[in-house]
Amino acid sequence: MNQSDSSRALQTRIVNPQDDITPGFESFAAPVTRASTVVFPDLATVRGLDWKNDAQWRYGLHATPTSTMLMQRLADIEGGEHALLQPSGLSSISNVYFGLLKAGDDVLIPDNVYSPNRDHGDWLARDFGITARYYDPMIGAGIEALIRPQTKLIWLEAPGSVTMEVPDVPAITAVARKHNVLTAIDNTWSAGLAFKPFDHGVDISVQALTKYQSGGSDVLMGATITRDRDLYLKIKLARMRLGIGVSSDDCSLVLRGLPSMKVRFDAHDRAALSLAQWLKTRSEIAAMLHPAFEDCPGHEFYKRDFTGAGGLFSVVFDERYSPAQIDAFCESLELFALGWSWGGARSLVMPYDIASMRTAASWPYRGTLVRFYIGLEDEADLRADIERALATLA
Ligand SMILES: *Cc1c(COP(=O)(O)O)cnc(C)c1O
């Protein structure tokens, strides 16, 4: 799909893609092509339109040169062939459901999944005649025992973006393939940079572009990426029927974030690792849930399958601190804002009550979990801020 030279490194292809779409006006900026209607030279062209043909422009909702440029870049980053854009990461998740499932089907969802995905499963089960069942994210090949003839889709999230368990992705996808069950991964945590889902047998990858791809905390968007063309067309058809589209203006914001994404990701990764190493030595912390640390379930799969971690990790505080004390700790941080949507420059923090979010796998910790997103502020300042807030716990 991408026209740039695939013998070059991904980072070079993203920064220097050499596929300017405006002949005669060569610039580094992605042109913003806005359209509702697209006009045709004659009726023979109109009658020859085919929604499956990506080379034809049909309607602004479906694709524009700007959105197509973004789709090509994203497919390249993820190691896929085809990408589709949705107006949020969550709508990418729902597009997968509506593209692939029908009444009577069964879907397996990891217990640690991004919680609106869980709400989606519950909604499908309640109102659409689809059974949604939750599984222990560390189940590995044991997922075979859960597969029924009606099972059509298995979701994965690697790692779960709050509790950070890293599943054995190839073990799960091997079982799924054996039983002809599709697999979809929410790969937002790795941005498609640190984990290549298609090399591990996954069929569909979802990215919340709202996060690292945008990098600006100012745009919402999501993508579904596949290697397989038939799967791509199924998701595309549902997208068309649901009237899902994205604006070229928003696409240009995401395109602007992509060239710097890897250096940002690596900077988040270095600072997060270093702060996590320090936090782990603190007596207030009972467990370090960062996949690069042995405390984190699935650490061995992280070492085997991932090339980096970015800025997001969680800690479990010692159970001697009450949830109210942990709330006060979070609120007393000055450089960490209370917020969910990570991937931008600013650091974030959020406490979670995990036991209330699970049904399949028991949660072994009694203390409160706090998720940190390490932004691009000076690392020593972030550490001093956490150190000062920890002192308020004493
Ligand atoms: C943020 C996020 C989403 C949803 O993205 P939105 O664009 O906010 O809808 C989905 N999955 C994960 C893991 C996320 O972090």
TrEMBL record:
PTM-bearing positions, type N6-(pyridoxal phosphate)lysine: 211
Keyword Lyase: yes
Gene Ontology MF terms in the entry: cysteine-S-conjugate beta-lyase activity; pyridoxal phosphate binding
Domain of life from the UniProt record: Bacteria
Pfam families assigned: Cys_Met_Meta_PP (PF01053)
EC number of this enzyme: 4.4.1.8
Tagged with keyword Ribosomal protein: no
A GO BP annotation: L-cysteine catabolic process to pyruvate
Cofactors: pyridoxal 5'-phosphate
Top-tier EC class: lyase
Catalysed reactions listed for this entry: L,L-cystathionine + H2O = L-homocysteine + pyruvate + NH4(+)
Gene3D superfamilies named in the record: Aspartate Aminotransferase, domain 1, Type I PLP-dependent aspartate aminotransferase-like (Major domain)
Keywords: Lyase, Pyridoxal phosphate
Protein family according to the UniProt entry: Belongs to the trans-sulfuration enzymes family.
Protein name: Cystathionine beta-lyase
Organism: Paraburkholderia bannensis
